[in-house]
User: What shape does this take?
Amino acid sequence: MPYDELLKSRRIRRERVSPREAERGLRRAERDLKAARAMMAQDWDWAFAIAYDAVFQASRAYMFARGYRPASKEAHKNTFAFLREAMGQGAATLIAYFDRIRRKRHKAIYDVAGLISETEARALFKSADAFVRRIAADVRQRLAAKS
Assistant: This one.
């Protein structure tokens, strides 16, 4: 069965998630991209954090569309573990990048103000924008096929 280890270790759980909830996750991701773009003019740390959140929300929608939910404890980490398995080797570099961003975002928000450079914020925004578009197309196609 796919995701056996993640299920056994209770990092994710199988759950019937409504298509509406998956769509809400995509809308949050798209909203966060707009907010991150606007925040670029004000604060690199926050623009970075919001762009990361767009990736996270889209990733959750991806999980929901497949009938899974991350465990509440370490939900961000578990979501990326799921993506590594679900998206396979072709997306491994991108998922590893977002997982590094997850850790850096944590430091920028909770530990070190001013940690994020303009270059880092803009690079993440570009990657997040492409990722959210890719995931949104996948999820919406999957949801349409189910209805």
In short: Helices lie at 4-8, 19-39, 44-65, 75-87, 92-110, 118-146.
